[in-house]
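Ticket #271: bound-state structure for 3-methyl-2-oxobutanoic acid.
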Amino acid sequence: MSKFEKQRNVTVRDIAARKGKAPVVCLTAYTALVAKLLDPHVDLLLVGDSVGMVIHGLPNTVGVTMEMMILHGQAVMRGAPRACIVVDMPFGSYEASPEQAFTNAARIMRETGCAAVKLEGGRVMAPTIEFMVKRGIPVMGHIGLQPQKVNMHGYAAKGRRRDEWDDVIADARAVADAGAFATVVEAVAGDLGERVTAEASNVTIGIGASSACDGQILVTEDMIGLFATTPSFVKRYAEWGAAIDEAAANYAAEVKARRFPGAEHTYSMRD
Ligand code: KIV
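RESOLUTION: The complex was predicted; output attached.
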């Protein structure tokens, strides 16, 4: 048995079976250390392409590469033995054709050992999702706000006007009918999140899409308050940005005053 073949506690089938049941708890992770800390608390960890912005300082997710996703996917797999791990397909790695999507998804799964991949897009990606699922790749969809299309549509929430609803609902249905086991629904009006969850036959994972979704996900670094500002749909459960700032300032002051290192942090002679 290879290092990847050990059965995880939470599988794609477990997640798929949660439609209409207890909410699926999801967060993002990019490193082994954070994945290990989150693993006992979540059903699913997403190695999101948000890694490009959060860890690598990119302006958006468009510049994220296959190599970045595979490296971070491997790290998260090593850190989290329990949760179902899903790895994002980066921009440009799946849109050209179903064959391109299958080849790159298979590489991600083979080289990381993750359970599934996620890709952005509604009706336009449905034939690709069907092609992949029929050939053994579990797929998570992503509709509503699609960050990889920032250069076309920006980051505006969807469905705050009634005439935007039909598109989002049709996308949700198409992705579910194509065989995606779950769909991330990002930044849509609360009532639309509820409607999409009722209409889609698969599990909906909301991020700014209301508590009616079958599960929730947040970017962990948003949730723990590492950024000065966060989108309005983020609840900050901690203020680690402020805590790191305070710790670094205290450290700098003590180093400058020669109060650190003290005797307790200094090696003494043995004899
Ligand atoms: O890349 C990511 O972190 C995501 C989540 C915001 C769902 O796609």
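RESOLUTION NOTES: Residues 28, 46, 48-50, 88, 142, 184, 207, 217, 219 surround 3-methyl-2-oxobutanoic acid (CB under 6 Å).
TICKET STATUS: resolved
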